[in-house]
């Protein structure tokens, strides 16, 4: 998650596991590196397709870990109301500054750790992009999202394939432990804990016959 200096991904006061916890500027610089941008293009295309298919004009969407608003702008184009949540006030400030007055009128900004936020009523869709990468207690985190979503949860996470392993190794040089996920792991979690939900998974980014992709794009829908 794009965490801020006040809390941790687990919500228990542990040191942050996110290299972008320190400043919003470092996060912004990293995601705009040419090599990172090239990896993200396939993810962006897929997510826009998912947003177009899933988000209705009357929807309220919760985005956990909005970061500097990279996907917030896509969500606010499609939904009636967007709640942008991040535990970095610096990130939230950047999102506010970058959105138009008309877009800000459709939004609420919440400074909170993901599982610390309890919406007063279920949200139509919960979104977290690039968040599970850094969450050690991912089952608790995903359970929280599913418990508060009325219709769908959309998220991305690193794969356990070769490219996911490369991502993991590079992250360790920054002192960060990346969570990686395989299909059966996610399917087993959903089947055992939320059998009323179904899941669609697609590999994106550097997706080859032998290497697999870098990222899972997951769409969970209530049956």
Question: Keyphrases for this structure?
Answer:
alpha/beta, single chain, 223 residues, globular, 22% strand, Rossmann fold
Structure commentary:
The chain has 223 residues and is α/β, with parallel strands linked by helices. It has a domain at 24-62 and 116-222: Rossmann fold (3-Layer(aba) Sandwich), CATH 3.40.50. It has eight helices and seven strands. Strands 3-2-1-4-5-7-6 form a seven-stranded mixed sheet, sandwiched between helices. Helix 3 links the parallel strand 1 (60-64) and strand 2. The protein is globular and about 45 Å long. The two termini are 28 Å apart.
Topology:
Layout: H1 24-31, H2 34-54, E1 60-64, H3 72-78, E2 81-86, H4 89-98, H5 101-104, E3 107-111, E4 123-128, H6 138-148, E5 149-158, H7 162-172, H8 183-193, E6 197-204, E7 215-222
Parallel strand pairs: 1-2, 1-4, 2-3, 4-5
Antiparallel strand pairs: 5-7, 6-7
CATH class of the domain at 24-62 and 116-222: Alpha Beta
CATH architecture annotation of the domain at 24-62 and 116-222: 3-Layer(aba) Sandwich
What separation lies between the terminal Cα atoms?
28 Å
- Helix % is 25-40%
Outline type: globular
Which class do the helix and strand fractions yield? Answer: alpha/beta
Low-pLDDT sequence parts: 1-16, 19-23
Give the strand content.
15-25%
Number of E-state strands: 7
In what order do the strands lie side by side in the largest sheet? 3-2-1-4-5-7-6
Q: Major sheet, described briefly?
A: 7 strands, mixed
What's the alpha carbon Rg, rounded to whole Å? Answer: 16 Å
Helix count, DSSP H or I runs of 4 or more residues:
8
CATH topology of the domain at 24-62 and 116-222: Rossmann fold
The CATH superfamily name of the domain at 24-62 and 116-222 is Vaccinia Virus protein VP39
- The mean pLDDT is 81
The H/E string reads HHEHEHHEEHEHHEE
